[in-house]
Amino acid sequence: MSKNLGSFSRIDTNVPVKSRTIFTSSFALSSEPTVNQLNNENEKVLPGVKRIDFLPLDTSFNSSEEAYKSKSTAELARALFVFQLTSFDPLVKHNIQILKFLRRIFGKRLFHYVMEHSFYGHFVAGADLHSIKPVISRNMQYGVKSILDYSVEEDMEEEQAKNKTKMSYDEIPMEGSLVSQSTGSRANEVQYEYHEKFGDRRKDVVSARTYFYDSEAQCNKNMMNFLECIDVVKETTDGTGFAAIKLTALGRPKFLLNMSRVLTGMKETFEKLTAKETDIVLKRIRSDMLSSSLTHMGIPVSRDDSKQWFTWLDVSDQGEIDLYTWSNLLKMQKPLHNFFTVPNLEEGKLESVLPRLSPESDTELKNMLERINKIAEHAADSGVRVLVDAEQTYFQPAISRLTMEMMRNFNKEKAVVFNTYQCYLKNAHDNFIIDLDLARRENFHFGCKVVRGAYMDQERERAVTIGYEDPINVSFEATTAMYEKVIDTAMKEVKLRQPGAVAVMAATHNEDTVRYCVQKLKDLGIKREDKAICFGQLLGMCDHVSFPLGQSGYSVYKYVPYGPIDEVLPYLSRRAMENRGILAKVKKEKKLLRAELKNRLLPNRGGNRQSNVKL
């Protein structure tokens, strides 16, 4: 990633003074203190600055004025134009082909001008560090902070994506033959196997970026992009922002697939060995009971072998193993294929659950782990927080486990690394409480992003096609209930632990979910200025929720993509597709935009600007 990619002129952001409400911010457009600054009750006020309480939050989210105070009239017109275009199905369906055609017909200069004043200008902050600063600064003045993501994506056809995936799985050299890999029930194991039909992981996914493995050099380049994104966050957000990363960008996906299969199988085995205890977070295995338990299950293991195996896993030297230490991934003193040895309860023996990797592949896996560690270390040193995105279920156990290891190492003083929990999954709450329990017991700060999920259609088709249990909740309502259950548990933990020990981001565009979180804070007596929970939405979407929250003193973030126009077209394509899939929400935003434009352009006919729009 280059920081000298050039910048493009942006639409005039001047807003009439009477419609501006400015937050105290190191990014104020003027260095002079303004009269109308919003402050919480504990915040110091500069000399000559009048204290104004936070605006009360209208949880109907129907006020066009509160939604668009930060926007110029030109920006409102652009937003309405973009949303109107995304309402035309044929246009959205073929959007990437249309954009490429326009680029050829218009030429680079005219195409950039058109995109700057339409889709790119609406959904992307800018090309580089210089051009994104005004967007970040202005949003901060209205209480909205930033999650930065360098959103350059490789544009490739489906067949090319499948070939890249197949290559990344086929080219892992092994010594000798593939050993048995049975760690649990066969129905669950097939979930963690490669299937060519699903080689293009972008299929049916519109709200998440996909990385494809190309080479170790490309993984290093991806790591450098993440490191530079952290630097941009540090430079532009004054320590308030996040950087977003994906672990599939940092190594062969098959490593994550194998790790996930191992973790899932080991969890099944652990639950069988500790069947008497029903609460997963309370389950423990002691050294003196491991050998007898295995023997009772028909697995003849010598005491020496049992003791050696237990010692490998008991990294904390506590004399007992919980689920987390049972499935420890990062003990690197031995070759990885030796470490991944577990009881096969069906065949009654201990066996390796990974192929015997060649020294080269063992090095590749270690390099992947080192890249992950380097990113977390750089973020901690830079004072920047990192959101690790969730991905498909067949990768997620490994991604979550590696993220928790990063938390364990770097979240000792504050929440630097955040894990993501997808609440459309049936096991979302179970996984959440296991991780929460580990953070509590080992006394590190726990950071979490709570989302609904981005891969539902793909996950369901894969489960039906391959033949394992659908991991997705049965309905939208069940996912909502799961989301609220996770939020409830998180908020209770916030009350139990010291301030700042638990940090929660509710990343959602769902108004009912936002209202639920706001009410939960009130019910538990958690002040909004405590910043125990923050909200997250995408740049260019859901402004009618983000900005009223920010102007009312709640901690809220926009996911802010940046990158050169020609290289973010796949991202823009996905945003267009996503808007088509949420027509009801876009319909409301269009009504609010029309109302605010009418208020500004025809003030005598617009009625009372404080009134809500009837929807």
From TrEMBL:
Name the record gives this protein: Proline dehydrogenase
Job description of the protein: Converts proline to delta-1-pyrroline-5-carboxylate.
A Pfam family hit: Pro_dh
Keywords: FAD, Flavoprotein, Oxidoreductase, Proline metabolism
Record domain Proline dehydrogenase: where: 138-587
GO molecular function annotations of the record: FAD binding; proline dehydrogenase activity
The organism of origin for this protein: Bugula neritina (Brown bryozoan)
Keyword Oxidoreductase: yes
Pathway connected to this protein: Amino-acid degradation; L-proline degradation into L-glutamate; L-glutamate from L-proline: step 1/2
Family under the similarity heading: Belongs to the proline oxidase family.
InterPro entries xref list: FAD-linked_oxidoreductase-like, Proline_DH_dom, Proline_oxidase
One example of a Gene Ontology biological process annotation: L-proline catabolic process to L-glutamate
Any one GO cellular component localisation term in the record: mitochondrion
Enzyme Commission number(s) of this protein: 1.5.5.2
Taxonomic placement: Eukaryota, Metazoa, Spiralia, Lophotrochozoa, Bryozoa
Catalysed reactions, semicolon-separated: L-proline + a quinone = (S)-1-pyrroline-5-carboxylate + a quinol + H(+)
Cofactor requirement: FAD
The keyword Endoplasmic reticulum appears for this protein: no
